[in-house]
Each structure stands twice: as C-alpha cells, then as structure tokens.
Design a protein that fits this description.
Elements (H helix, E strand, L loop, with lengths): L9 H14 L11 H8 L3 H13 L3 E4 L3 E4 L15 H5 L5 E12 L2 H7 L6 E11 L8 E7 L6 H6 L6 H9 L5 E10 L2 H7 L6 E10 L5 E10 L13
Antiparallel strand pairs: 1-2, 3-4, 4-5, 5-8, 6-7, 7-8
Helix pairs in contact: 1-3, 2-3
Length: 245
C-alpha cells in the first residue's frame, strides 16, 4: 500500500482505503489487509482502524465477517444518506429531476463576512462551484442559483462536476474520496436577489427569495462542504412533517 501523507485519523484512513478500492488496488472480492496489518501500516490503534473500516462498511464498499476478514464488495458507495426529519429529495437537495447548469468554477478567498457566513477560516481559500439549478421538466426558468464551496484538497472534483451535471457534488466527493456525510445543518433566510444573480434567474433585482445554507460534516465532525442556494420565492418552497414524539 502507498503511505498515508496526512495526519492519521480514521477519516484519513477511510479515505485512503476508499481510493485504493476505487483504483483497483484492492479488487472486488479480495480481502483487505488484517486489522493488525493496517495498524502497523498506518501506525495507529486498533480502535482507529476499526472506525475506518466501519466507515467503509457504512458506504457499502466492504463487508466484515469474524474469522474471515474485510472483503471488498463494491468500488462505489451504495448507501444513501437520510436525514432524520425528511427525505433528501424533500429537504436536503432539489430532487432527482433537477440538474446543474454549470456557470463557474473558481478558487475564492474567504473574506471576513463570507467566512463567518460559511463557518470557514478567514483568509482560507476554498473552491467555489456556481451553477443554475434547472428543472428537467421545465428548462426555461431556473429553480435557483447555487454556490457550493468545497475544501481546496478536493480541487480536482471540479473537472468531475463538469461531466456529471445530474450527480450531487456531495455524492461525487463520497464516491471519489470516501468522505461520507454524517450530518447536515441547514438554515433558511429571507433575502432580496442581487443584480447579477437576478439576471441569471430571470427575475427583477430586489425581488424576494429564499436563501438556504447547508453545512456538510463528516463522521469526525469536520466541515468539508457548504452550499448556498438562492431561490425566487415563487419557484421554490420547503415543507416538512412534524410528529409528536
């Protein structure tokens, strides 16, 4: 195996092993190295290795059986993230009928106000992927404008995004790097639409909109993606069902 270049925690190990599975270094049907071999390779504890293997199992990449080992089952994650309150289609994303119409991919420095809004370190540089969200059944009027910010370590994902307009960016990150979403925080605000975005959305500048910010966290509680979506008021709504516990 190749050595791990970054700090060794279970998220790093899970990512490294996922890349090995995706590249074919660990083919489907074969066994991964034993827990002790992984401990020695990554110079870490058995607890950390087991946490990493649990992540791979949650992704559907491997199966684990006592006295047999960890078997590679798939080169691609097979599980779906489900929030506790509603479905991904209803609450977290735009649904399977919506695709990205890519507008721009750039590196952006997080100035003070933006850094505070996104909960990023001021002065850090993140990759920004800007796109219009289009309804497959009605591609004349965009559903909204979305800026997705991802860690600079994943800069190469930009090229993959260009060729996968119907796949969520978080899914692309999960597939390529094995960094699985553990938690998403969402905030909805009422805003007015600025001139550049208003023109792209084909609405009047200053008209009302919903601004939805989502923060994506991995199993270690680290933020690795933020999305900011602007939706004209008459084209998008958020609904949910609450039940008495």
């Amino acid at each position: 195996m190749n050595s791990l270049p970054t700090k060794t925690n279970f998220v790093n190990i899970a990512q490294h092993l996922t890349e090995g599975i995706a590249s074919g270094r660990f083919p489907v049907g074969t066994l991964l190295p034993t827990e002790m071999e992984l401990c020695n390779h990554y110079t870490t504890s058995r607890h950390t290795v087991r946490a990493a293997l649990h992540e791979l199992q949650q992704l559907g990449l491997v199966s684990r059986k006592k006295n047999v080992g960890t078997r590679v089952e798939s080169t691609r994650p097979t599980n779906d993230f489900r929030p506790s309150l509603a479905s991904v289609d209803d609450l977290v994303q735009f649904g399977s009928t919506h695709v990205r119409k890519l507008q721009e991919i750039v590196s952006e420095k997080m100035e003070d106000d933006l850094a505070t809004d996104l909960r990023c370190k001021a002065g850090s540089t993140w990759l920004r992927i800007s796109s219009l969200r289009m309804d497959g059944a009605n591609d004349r009027l965009p559903v909204g404008w979305t800026d997705v910010y991802i860690e600079p370590a994943y800069a190469e994902i930009g090229e993959i995004v260009r060729h996968s307009p119907g796949v969520l960016i978080s899914t692309l990150i999960e597939t390529r790097y094995g960094r699985r979403i553990e938690q998403i925080q969402q905030e909805i605000r009422a805003v007015t639409i600025s001139e550049p975005i208003a023109q792209s959305l084909q609405v009047d500048a200053g008209s009302t909109a919903l601004k939805i910010i989502r923060w994506y966290y991995d199993a270690a509680g680290d933020l690795f993606e933020v999305s900011v979506s602007i939706h004209p008021a008459e084209r998008f709504s958020v609904s949910m069902l609450l039940k008495r516990s």
